[in-house]
Specification:
Order of helices and strands: HEHEHEEEHEEHEEEEHEEEEE
Number of strands: 16
Number of helices: 6
Strand order of the largest sheet: 2-1-3-6-14-15-16
Number of domains: 2
Subunit structure: Homodimer.
Low-confidence stretches: none
Family: Belongs to the ribose 5-phosphate isomerase family.
CATH architecture of the largest domain: 3-Layer(aba) Sandwich
Protein name: Ribose-5-phosphate isomerase A
Helix content: 25-40%
Mean pLDDT: 97
Pfam family, one: Rib_5-P_isom_A
EC number: 5.3.1.6
Bound molecules: ribulose-5-phosphate
């Protein structure tokens, strides 16, 4: 790990620990995916094991579900009417208006489902994720395999450079989501109008979900060194220590 990567890992854990302070006994949680969420799930599991918290959760990926099981968080299956008190999840990029790019970990569909079904979606992230403009990170799409050629054409027409995701350890093997769909990472370099792009992508048949999350997150906890700032749309950033409960 380079010094930058270990600093980033520390910040992820700091943001996760800050989110844990706002989990209350009895809450039903949506558990995110990725390394920042894994830090949160681990800390939450420790609190559950220590008898400090009684919570239940549903995970946004099979990987997070396995981790939650390992650390002793009771899990709830999807069912009609299921709503979550709090969703905690990472992001690949976010701006000051809490527009997010998600799906770097391939879990965007379940993430969007559960975060839409949550009363409060709290993003946790290290300082590298907060950007002035979205788009440096390639925008992930979950795509039905049969639709792939047409989706690639449509993304190019929108000005993006699409790349079908492969498995890191074996670049000859296509990456599959938990739903067995393909992932396409779209390089736009800059996304000046995320709302417009989101609507354009939503109109392309075969895209099951796209990685722009707009209007979903209520707050973000951004760790910068040992400090944690709360970011909320239209409000000045404030230290997380100013808040005794969810901001
Ligand atoms: O969207 C995601 C998974 O689909 C993750 O939240 C995102 O990739 C951030 O991951 P990390 O916490 O490892 O930086």
């Amino acid at each position: 790990m380079t010094p930058d990567q270990s600093q980033q890992a520390l910040e992820k854990r700091t943001a996760a620990a800050a989110a844990l302070r706002w989990v209350r006994d009895g809450m039903l949680l949506s558990l995110g995916t990725g390394s920042t969420s894994a830090a949160f799930i681990t800390l939450l599991g420790e609190a559950v094991q220590a008898g400090q918290l009684r919570v239940q959760g549903t995970a946004t990926s099979l990987a997070s579900e396995n981790l939650a099981r390992q650390v002793g968080i009771p899990l709830v299956e999807p069912r009609r009417g299921l709503r979550f008190d709090l969703a905690v999840d990472g992001a690949d990029e976010l701006d000051a208006q809490l527009r997010l790019i998600k799906g770097g970990g391939g879990a965007l569909l379940r993430e969007k489902l559960l975060e839409t079904a949550s009363e409060y979606f709290l993003v946790i992230a290290d300082s590298t994720k907060l950007v002035p403009q979205l788009g440096r990170f390639p925008l992930p799409l979950e795509v039905v395999p049969f639709a792939l050629p047409w989706v690639l054409d449509a993304v190019e027409k929108l000005g993006g450079a699409p790349e079908v995701r492969t498995v890191k350890a074996d670049p000859n093997q296509l990456y599959r989501s938990d739903q067995n769909n393909l992932l396409v990472d779209c390089y736009f370099n800059a996304i000046p109008d995320p709302e417009r792009l989101m609507h354009q992508l939503q109109n392309i048949p075969g895209i099951v979900e796209q990685g722009l999350f707009i209007g979903l997150a209520k707050a973000a906890l951004i760790a910068n060194g040992a400090d944690v700032q709360v970011i909320r749309p239209g409000m000045a950033p404030a230290p997380a220590s100013d808040f005794a409960s969810l901001p």
